[in-house]
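hiii so um. not sure if this is the right channel but i have a protein structure encoded as tokens and i wanna go backwards to a sequence. like what aa goes where. can anyone help
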């Protein structure tokens, strides 16, 4: 099944066809993750949401069964169709988004190392992101700053090279960092040449126990409360030259091209977000699906005026719309995941479309679920209010809905829309 007329693969014989028929391996992984989500995450979700703490015992349990770790991420990513990572994330976040993010938050830092690092850097740093089954660790990808969220070109964190010691010295403040301060590995995007804007940035790995990196105040959030979020401060943080992702030779060549005015295919931060947007969309779909399934079951059991409320057209139509929108969002996510994994050319910002649609559907579907449950849906005794709180962030982080629309508009118009 072709995704777009323009998206012919470079080598059609080696590129897996886009298919909605999942393989046996994909179905097995889906069922495995779903079982963990249903048996472990769902029963613990309310407790960890109320505690607003990192659920280390659950992360360790995931590590011991092989769901969290270098091998698991490698297995999910190795699927040549690109769908397994999205499938696994949907099932996990169907179980609970807060705990799901505590488990999957590390993957953003891993994606940055994998996307920009050398083979040697991948081999050294990615295993450290996860730790071991007996002593699991987490990683943090640090981009946003107090005055630089959607506008990554405004980053003020700096990285200066000390040639005498072959070290980079980082200074600045990062905001809204998932696992910030508690991570074993931090990946920090910093400005090397401010005159070049976003093209003068690079990503650096901060190894464990590096002096000068400290955690700021932990953020108390509206949703995803089992996932740790905090500011990170960098005060003369010194890291070896080998911690520059991609290496100095590659960075120098990139900066030289930028100074000559040559075009650039990607920005350091945006390169990571482009790769992860379909996965983020899949997470949002998991939340939306949880709310839809719960509302559907509730509507079939709840009696009003002598019959189940699902027999009222207004309720039945709302559920029909929820099902339709969730399935439509999943198709966009799967298409974008397949295109990204198989090297297809993104003709109209398909990654942004998938994340935008999924995030807005999650907010909309969880709100519909609350409405169907009525007063019960507004209480913490029922999970739909938590799902609604968790869903909202998907229209904000990794590019707000407005930024996604801007990306799409620029792609379809070919113009620099402001």
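sure thing!! here u go:
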């Amino acid at each position: 099944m072709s995704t777009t007329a323009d998206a012919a693969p470079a080598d059609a014989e080696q590129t897996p066809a886009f298919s909605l028929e999942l393989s046996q391996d994909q179905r097995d992984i889906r069922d495995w993750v779903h079982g963990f989500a249903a048996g472990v995450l769902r029963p613990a979700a309310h407790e960890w949401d109320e505690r607003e703490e990192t659920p280390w015992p659950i992360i360790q349990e995931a590590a011991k069964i092989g769901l969290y770790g270098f091998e698991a991420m490698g297995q999910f990513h190795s699927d040549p169709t690109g769908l397994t990572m999205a499938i696994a994330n949907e099932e996990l976040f169907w179980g609970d988004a807060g705990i799901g993010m505590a488990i999957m938050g590390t993957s953003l830092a891993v994606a940055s190392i994998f996307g920009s690092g050398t083979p040697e850097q991948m081999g050294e740093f990615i295993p450290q992101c996860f730790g071991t089954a007996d002593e699991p660790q987490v990683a943090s990808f640090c981009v946003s700053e107090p005055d630089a969220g959607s506008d990554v070109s405004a980053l003020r964190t700096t990285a200066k090279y000390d040639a005498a010691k072959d070290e980079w010295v980082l200074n600045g403040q990062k905001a809204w960092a998932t696992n910030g301060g508690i991570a074993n590995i931090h990946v920090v995007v910093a400005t090397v040449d401010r005159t070049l804007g976003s093209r003068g940035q690079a990503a650096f790995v901060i190894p464990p126990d590096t002096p000068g990196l400290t955690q700021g105040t932990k953020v108390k959030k509206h949703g995803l409360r089992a996932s740790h979020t905090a500011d990170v401060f960098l005060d003369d943080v010194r890291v070896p030259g080998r911690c520059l992702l991609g290496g100095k030779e590659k960075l120098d060549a990139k900066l030289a091209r930028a100074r000559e005015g040559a075009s650039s295919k990607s920005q350091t931060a945006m390169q990571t977000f482009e790769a992860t947007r379909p996965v983020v969309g899949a997470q949002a779909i998991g939340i939306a699906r949880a709310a839809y399934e719960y509302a559907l079951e509730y509507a079939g059991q709840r009696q009003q005026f002598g019959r189940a409320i699902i027999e009222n057209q207004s309720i039945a139509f709302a559920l029909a719309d929820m099902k339709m929108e969730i399935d439509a969002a999943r198709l966009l996510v799967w298409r974008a995941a397949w295109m990204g994994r198989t090297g297809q050319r993104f003709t109209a910002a398909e990654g942004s479309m998938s994340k935008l649609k999924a995030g807005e559907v999650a907010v909309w579907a969880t709100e519909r679920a609350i409405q169907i449950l009525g007063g019960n849906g507004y209480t913490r005794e029922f999970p739909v209010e938590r799902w609604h709180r968790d869903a909202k962030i998907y229209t904000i982080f990794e590019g707000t809905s407005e930024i996604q629309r801007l990306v799409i508009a620029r792609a379809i118009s070919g113009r620099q829309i402001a």
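oh and DSSP finds 13 helices and nine strands in the chain.
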